[in-house]
Amino acid sequence: MRSLLVAGALVIAGAFIAPSIDAHASTIHNGDVSASVEKTTTRNMSSYARPQKGNKFVSYLIHIENDSDDKITISPGSFDLEDSDGFRYDNTYSSIARPSFTVVTIRSGKEYRGWISYEIPRDAHITGMVWSVGYNDIRTIPLDD
Fold first, then answer.
1. CATH number for the domain harbouring residue 25
2. Domain count, the chain
3. Angle 62-67-69 (CA atoms, 0-180°, nearest 5)?
4. How many CB atoms lie within 10 A of CB 103?
5. Interatomic CA distance for residues 57 and 78, integer angstroms
6. Phi, psi of 64 (to 5 degrees)
7. How far apart are the C-alpha atoms of 43 and 29, rounded to whole Å?
């Protein structure tokens, strides 16, 4: 069986697997693939990166589990933060927290963890992490900052 991750959506043998949200944890399921938010920090591990005035860095430890029969490829660019006003924030490319989440191929039965960092306004109230799993298909992990 072949699989392909297209813009975050898992396609197995030509069938699209729609993700679901685990109501009891900070987890999104996409077929046999899950993405979890495990931790958050505002600690800056970079000696050179500084947020713009009025902003702060916030980082989230993301855990991906591949319980499918095939390898998958996933990117940190598939995950955005959303605040209570509906604004979305892309991840930064600085290594604010390490190890950084990178574009990665995860073999069947394996998992991967990495930090994704964002620069957001100091007064933003983050309500969710949005996973773009495909065209017009986005899922949100509820977060409470």
1. 2.60.40.1240
2. 1
3. 135
4. 10
5. 18
6. -110, 130
7. 28
Q: Please, which residues have CB within 8 angstroms of residue 106's CB and are 6 or more apart in sequence? A: 64, 66, 71, 72, 73, 74, 112
For residue 63, list its beta bridge partners. 36, 113
Q: Which helix (H) or strand (E) holds 130?
A: strand 126-134
Task: Please state the φ and ψ torsions of residue 78, each to the nearest 5 degrees.
Answer: -80, -10
Kindly report, residue by residue over 66-102, the tens digit of the pLDDT.
998 988 888 899 899 999 999 999 998 777 888 889 9
* Token pair of 84 as six digits: 């209570």
Domain interval for residue 100:
3-142
Tell me: the pLDDT tens digits for 18-49? 333 333 347 777 778 888 888 888 877 777 88
CA distance linking residue 99 with residue 56, whole number of Å: 19
Backbone angles phi, psi at 86, to 5 degrees: 90, 5
Euclidean distance between the first and the last CA atom of the chain, given in angstroms as a whole number: 40
Say if residues 15 and 7 touch (Cβ distance below 8 Å).
no
For the stretch 101-137, pLDDT in tens is: 999 999 999 999 999 999 999 999 999 998 876 666 6
